[in-house]
UniProtKB/TrEMBL annotation, chain C:
It comes from the Bacteria. Keywords: Cell membrane, Membrane, Transmembrane, Transmembrane helix, Transport. This is Carbohydrate ABC transporter permease. GO terms for biological process: transmembrane transport.
Length: 362, 353, 312
């Protein structure tokens, strides 16, 4: 059974703690993405699973066996490196075949498997070339082919698409997802690109400074972020986070001062638990409805910059107190620079984060 | 990236412009001939030198005008090498066709006489051929030893470990010794009465050990000292290659469960092959010139005379300057043939791979 | 738990594929020490009292290392030999006179560094030219440059002596520096060219498009990337030039004499046989500058730079 489990894994480099107390489990056939900004510890976590780094504390369990003291050779895993790590002096076909030598398969069987995998990833025509003679996309597929030609315990991907251009990324995202679905192995993908995570993963683990901030399905992390960091990391354009002073809460409406303006905004009922004080309001750009007249339930702002994005338009606006607000409207709603906007946040999509940044939600 | 603008034509011979190198050559030749015929040697030397400088200046201006950057960059090096190396070499080559002895004043033209003599005359040829065979033997032994020991040392130092910097410099020190000092001390180490080698063997077998008593021992002693001194050179070059292999290739190989042996041939070797070749090339060329250690350790006794030492004897001690020049050109010819062969093979392999 | 304690003490288990722990240090230390022994013996001999140099059994160590080494292998260290380097009596009962070695050391340092640096500058420029602006006969030119190293000094010596005498460069600094520069050029050009060949042209092309002139590209972009090559070439050149004997013997005058020549003179004259302790002292002192330079340049030497073997 192909599973991965991390139990309270900690990794320290001297006095620097790269990974703190990480708990994660990946089921067979599940794709989990480790997502986060650079330096958050996601690559270190992946390398710990691979055995390229030794854990300082905690347990790494693969396929039910504790693998802490086993070197990578003995863990029976497959990994696709960020720089592909294709052996420069061997042809693409030979590169793909190398992992099979260990299994003692006959030459004919090896060739058959290589061809099969090459067909899946459309590499038949480059099998005889050297790695420095093929394109980036082909290199990426070759690295993948080398990984899937085996029958390992699990798959590990380190920033697989980071070196591809935008168009290629789109194609490869779909291809990778397709290939992984057919294989039913536990898979961990490390990426800093949220779009990759959202499209390829069954679950996403968002990391910051060595800690996992939230683990959940793409929908969960998008619609129910656990804290302000996750909220601002997921979603493009970025969620608007506004500092506010909570006064009272009654009847589903929170009375607060947002950037100097007194507002009464509808929020989740759990806000009742909060003491009056500093909070952060999070509203995604598409969660605003511009209305004609302003009232205590709307935020007023002046449009400063209009960015047409095709079917939608991104408006950069600024409140009277100087806070930046990003709003996305359909292109039929024409807005001019300098125009005054009254923005009503959708109560179901208004997030409240307490003073420590944690989401307040029922 | 030589930018040759077709609009700049070579000026005709008679145009007096700064970059007209054809004119410069013509003037130089005429002036040199006149001065060598008519003026005393010291003065004509300077005149010829000035003429050469004129030609060089014309070339330089020409190169500058035509943006021959390559030529400009390379020119100073070529100039120094020409004056300091090539000119003396050509002079020696010319000398090898005469019968000249440094302590006499007579010069006789003998054409290929010297070459014929050293290769076929009983006395001279015997010494020449003997020395050549010895040299070949030394080259093979000492270069092989250096490559093997240097390679093994490089493998030892390839990974980062505590105190690596300090241990590395210890191993590099033999290269820094003056040949005089190390040669003299090695005679001491090899000495049957006082030397450490004999002392150790004495404690085991009860007899003094005279290393230099026969040719095998003498050759072994020389090869050992030479290899000991120069293996660090090979080590440094190979080490530079070893540390340049990207770490992630080894990580991928570990995950792919590729055996250590195969990892070496597939990943490491391609990175160090070029450097091994470079080391082999330079050490072989230097090994052909082996003479100092032979002089210091055996003075050529026990049939350890190398061609270079033979040369020194002939040219210096016996003052047969022309004959010495002939021998050295013979040697040069052989080294050139060998090196060409080697480079041809090396290039073929890299292109084929 | 034990691992974390050991880790704090520095005994961290190797965590990467290119790291090794103290086990390797021990193994390498044994090998390095054995390799270094002949040199160590020379250094020790420098500290031995004059009569002690040639003794049976050989005296191996200044200390008995806590009784590990039996007494008859131990000698009493002294500094008198180092003093003798600079001032000693030339005749059996004469008073000590200055030997001029301070001047010889200066000469060696000056001549070696000047010629190696000059070769580095001229050679690197030429290597850049060969690499970036290849001419039709490139390989031929490079091979001819290589051939300048192939002949032993003895062949070139006579015309060079004559040449120097005519021009008046005999015994001068300029003459011998120019000669040594020429010696180092072959190796410098070949080494630096292979480093330049390895650089990827993308960055340079970008800079050219931005308007930088050829020279600017060379200094700001290419040169910083080949620091490892410059360091290696400098160290090699220094080592080769430092110990050069034959040309120094025949071309340097009393003012410009280098240490190897003076060493040979000081040691083999006097008819008393080899003065071991004096030779050892001179050599030990002579080692110091090269040793220091190599030590400090080590980091640059070991920076990973491929040598034009495999294209990434």
């Amino acid at each position: 059974m192909s599973t991965i489990e991390l139990r309270k894994v900690t990794k320290r480099f001297g006095s620097f703690t790269a990974v703190k107390d990480v708990d994660l489990s990946v089921a067979a056939g599940e794709v989990v993405c480790l997502l986060g900004p650079s330096g958050c510890g996601k690559t270190t976590t992946l390398r710990v699973i691979a055995g390229l780094e030794r854990v300082t504390d905690g347990e790494v369990v693969i396929a039910g066996k504790v693998m802490n003291n086993l070197p990578p050779e003995k863990r029976d895993i497959a990994m696709v490196f960020q720089f592909y790590a294709l052996y420069p002096s061997a042809s693409v076909g030979e590169n793909i075949a190398f992992p099979l030598y260990h299994d003692g398969i006959s030459g004919a069987e090896r060739t058959a498997r290589v061809n099969r995998v090459a067909a899946i990833l459309h590499l038949e025509h480059v099998l005889d070339r050297l790695p420095n003679q093929i394109s980036e996309g082909e290199k990426q597929r070759a690295a993948m082919a080398r990984a899937i030609v085996r029958d390992p315990n699990c798959f590990l991907f380190d920033e697989p698409l980071s070196r591809l251009d935008v168009e290629l990324r789109q194609t490869m995202r779909g291809q990778i997802k397709e290939v992984l679905q057919g294989l039913s192995k536990a898979t961990v993908i490390v990426t800093h690109d949220q779009l990759e995570a959202l499209t390829m993963a069954n679950r996403i683990a968002i990391m910051k400074d060595g800690l996992i901030e939230q683990v959940g399905s793409p929908h969960e992390v998008f619609a129910k972020p656990a804290n302000a960091f996750v909220a601002s990391f997921i979603g493009t354009p970025q969620m608007n986070l506004l500092e506010a002073d909570l006064k009272t809460f009654a009847d589903g409406t929170a009375d607060m001062t947002v950037a100097g303006t007194s507002l009464a905004i509808r929020t989740d009922a759990a806000v009742a638990r909060l003491q009056p004080g500093k909070v952060t309001i999070g509203v995604r750009p598409r969660a605003f409805t511009p209305t004609d007249t302003g009232d205590r339930g709307t935020i007023s702002a002046r449009a400063e910059l209009i960015e047409p994005m095709g079917a939608e338009t991104l408006i950069h606006a600024r409140t009277a107190a100087g806070a930046d607000i990003r709003v996305v409207v359909t292109r039929s709603q024409r807005v001019k620079v300098g125009e005054a906007l009254n923005l009503r946040p959708d109560p179901r999509q208004t997030h409240v984060f307490d003073g420590a940044g944690k989401a307040v939600r029922s | 990236m030589t930018a040759v603008t077709s609009t700049l034509l070579t000026p005709r011979l008679t145009t007096v412009v700064a970059h007209n190198w054809k004119l410069a050559i013509a003037v130089a030749v005429v002036v040199s001939a006149i001065s060598m015929a008519g003026l005393p040697a010291a003065v004509s030397f300077w005149v010829v030198g000035a003429a050469a400088a004129l030609v060089a200046a014309a070339f330089t201006v020409n190169a500058y005008r035509r943006h021959y950057f390559g030529a400009l960059l390379v020119a100073p090096a070529i100039a120094v090498l020409f004056v300091m190396n090539i000119f003396p070499l050509l002079w020696s080559l010319g000398l090898s066709f005469f019968a000249y002895q440094a302590n006499q004043q007579t010069i006789r033209f003998v054409g290929l006489g010297n070459y014929v003599r050293i290769l076929t005359n009983d006395l001279a040829a015997h010494a020449t051929w003997g020395a050549l065979i010895n040299t070949a033997m030394f080259v093979v032994f000492t270069v092989s030893a250096q490559m093997i020991v240097g390679f093994l040392l490089a493998i030892l130092f390839a990974k980062q470990f505590p105190l690596r910097k300090y241990l590395l410099i210890l191993v590099l020190t033999p290269m820094m010794l003056s040949v005089v000092a190390s040669g003299v001390f090695f005679t001491y180490y090899y000495d049957p009465t006082f030397g450490i080698l004999s002392y150790v063997i004495n404690s085991i077998s009860g007899n003094q050990f005279i290393l230099m008593s026969n040719k095998v021992g003498a050759v072994a002693g020389i090869v050992f000292a030479d290899a000991w001194m120069w293996s660090p050179f090979v080590m440094l070059l190979v080490l530079a290659g070893l540390v340049s292999v990207p770490k992630y290739l080894y990580e991928a190989a570990a995950i792919d469960r590729i055996s250590r042996w195969r990892q070496f041939w597939m990943i490491t070797f391609p990175y160090i092959r070029g450097l091994l070749m470079l080391a082999l090339l330079f050490r072989t060329i230097e090994a052909f010139k082996l003479a100092d250690l032979v002089i210091l350790l055996t003075k050529g006794g026990n049939d350890t005379l190398t061609i270079s030492y033979h040369l020194i004897r002939i040219a210096n001690e016996q003052n047969k300057t022309s004959e010495g020049a002939a021998i050295s050109y013979l040697m040069l010819f052989m080294v050139i043939v060998l090196t060409n062969l080697y480079l041809y093979l090396a290039n073929r392999r890299t292109k084929g791979a | 738990m034990a691992e974390s304690i050991l880790g704090k003490l520095g005994f961290r288990r190797a965590s990467g594929v290119d790291e090794a722990g103290w086990g390797r240090t021990l193994a390498v230390a044994v090998v390095a020490f054995i390799y270094f022994l002949p040199v160590l013996f020379i250094i020790f001999t420098a500290f031995k009292p004059q009569g002690d140099a040639l003794l049976v059994p050989p005296t191996l160590s200044p200390t008995s290392l806590f009784g590990l080494i039996p007494d008859h292998f131990v000698f009493k260290p002294t500094l008198e030999n180092f003093g003798s380097v600079f001032s000693r009596s030339m005749t059996p009962d004469g008073a000590p006179e200055a030997t001029g070695f301070d001047r010889y050391f200066f000469n060696s340092i000056f001549i070696a560094s000047a010629s190696v640096l000059l070769a580095l500058v001229i050679g690197t420029l030429a290597a850049f030219g060969f690499s970036r602006y290849p001419l039709k006969g490139n390989d031929t030119y490079l091979f001819i440059i290589l051939t300048t190293r192939m002949l032993p000094a003895i062949v070139v010596i006579i015309p060079v002596i004559l040449m120097f005498r005519v021009v008046g460069l005999s015994g001068s600094y300029l003459g011998i520096i120019m000669l040594y520069t020429a010696f180092n050029l072959a190796f410098t050009i070949w080494m630096m060219k292979s480093f330049f060949d390895e650089l990827s042209p993308d960055v340079e092309d970008a800079a050219r498009i931005d308007g930088s002139s050829g020279m600017r590209v060379f200094f700001k972009i290419c040169l910083p990337q080949v620091i490892a090559g410059l360091a290696a070439t400098f160290v090699f050149g220094l080592i080769l030039t430092w110990n050069e004997f034959l040309f120094a013997l025949l071309l340097s005058g009393p003012d410009t004499r280098t240490v190897p020549v003076a060493m040979n003179q000081a040691v083999s004259s006097g008819g008393r046989g080899t003065d071991w302790t004096l030779l050892a002292a001179i050599e030990t002192l002579f080692l110091v500058p090269v040793f220091l330079v190599t030590f400090f340049l080590q980091n640059h030497l070991l920076r990973g730079v491929t040598f034009g073997t495999v294209k990434r």
